[in-house]
Amino acid sequence: MIAKVDRLSGLHAGPPRTGFLTLLKFLIVDDLVRPRMIRSLVHSLGLHRDVEHRLTGVIRTRHTLHRRIVVLENVRRLFHYWHVIHVPFSIVMFVILFIHVGVAVAFGYTWVF
Description:
Strand content: under 5%
Largest sheet: none
Number of helices: 3
Radius of gyration: 26 Å
Oligomer: single chain
Order of helices and strands: HHH
Distance between the termini: 76 Å
Structural class: mainly alpha
Shape: rod-shaped
């Protein structure tokens, strides 16, 4: 039954690899569509009201977890690129720091106090 619910709600697919604006659009549209989609999905199964209520909670939880996976995967990719760009800059800054200290010591600068 869970496999059927996942298939009908679109949770069987892996997280989409998207850009930031596409991800933002996905999140906004998902917020608007998700409640109606879950209600119609659970109602179409024709279960008792108590079971329907518990199943709705399970579907919401699974959908929220899937959504977090999508967001975290895209944020992980974004931070990978941030790391690729910033590590060389930090190395260059440390080289500049050592050159600056070396030049200051070579010219005989001392503490002001």
